[in-house]
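Retry 2 of 3 after timeout on previous attempt. Resubmitting structure tokens to design endpoint.
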């Protein structure tokens, strides 16, 4: 039986009672379940942790979620999910609300290539020849990022992508006493993701992502911050998405079992990032308060 405060929460409520309930739920040893969010016909979103009786809930808008830096337990987080599930969007919101340093493997790779570092030049040669960047090189790039953050709160986005990388990450973190204490998995229906990526535009230098339906730029085709043009990725189409999704199922999805066995995995299900984030926000408030 779940704590009463978790039977049904307003997706963005994050009230003190719900946070305490979520904390008790995690401490009870059942934190590896799926926290679900469902959209009703009236477009009111509700977070549910199990099939339970409906009850009245107060709903707040996303901007009303409070922001504050982390204290106490350090955040050592990894965010997982299928391509297009919203990992970058959630990482940005966590960074802005909680003062957590977000490390995107793609951003790190692009920065090193642009700066012409030794690792960046090796990566550029692999990319130019159509090869995958080696696990060893990606691990080294992430290691270089983490050694600069020994006392900071951080989350990883886009790494690890397979079991070999996860094992290398575990060994690296154990050597610096920074072991992962939270792995978040975003569960979004595949048909929703497909519609999302077809409408996705990106500001390549910064990695900022826009969607024509639910997160459009203020000026069509232009980045809100820099005024530079946005790009539609050539592989953001149904055929490429299905190939990437198949690769995810084969290579990356086994990470869920890997982290489930360690007891640090929690999955959040919903149809949009705005639906999922308030649950994630409440989880972080309860887990790292």
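Retry 2 succeeded. Sequence:
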């Amino acid at each position: 039986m779940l704590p009463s405060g978790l039977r049904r929460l307003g997706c963005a409520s994050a009230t003190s009672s719900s946070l305490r309930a979520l904390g008790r739920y995690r401490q009870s040893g059942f934190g590896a379940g799926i926290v679900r969010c469902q959209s009703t016909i009236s477009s009111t979103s509700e977070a549910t942790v199990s099939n339970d009786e409906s009850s009245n809930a107060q709903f707040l808008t996303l901007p009303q979620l409070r922001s504050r830096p982390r204290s106490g337990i350090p955040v050592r987080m990894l965010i997982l999910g299928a391509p297009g599930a919203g990992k970058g969007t959630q990482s940005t919101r966590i960074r802005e609300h909680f003062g957590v340093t977000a490390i995107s493997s793609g951003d790190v790779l692009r920065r090193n290539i642009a700066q012409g570092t030794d690792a960046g030049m090796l990566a550029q040669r692999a990319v130019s020849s159509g090869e995958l960047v080696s696990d060893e090189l990606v691990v080294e790039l992430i290691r270089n990022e983490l050694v600069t953050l020994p006392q900071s709160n951080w989350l990883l986005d886009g790494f690890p992508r397979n079991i070999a990388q996860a094992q290398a990450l575990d060994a690296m973190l154990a050597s610096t006493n920074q072991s992962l204490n939270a792995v978040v998995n975003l569960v979004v229906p595949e048909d929703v993701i497909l519609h999302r990526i077809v409408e996705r535009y990106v500001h390549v230098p910064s990695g900022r992502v826009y969607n024509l339906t639910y997160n459009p730029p203020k000026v069509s085709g232009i980045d809100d911050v820099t005024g530079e043009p946005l790009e539609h990725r050539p592989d953001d189409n149904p055929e490429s998405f299905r190939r990437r999704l198949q690769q995810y199922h084969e290579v990356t999805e086994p990470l869920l079992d890997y982290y489930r066995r360690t007891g640090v995995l929690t999955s959040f299900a919903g149809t949009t990032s705005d639906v999922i984030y308030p649950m994630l926000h409440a989880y972080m408030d309860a887990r790292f308060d």
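Attempt log closed. The CA atoms of residues 171 and 179 lie 9 Å apart.
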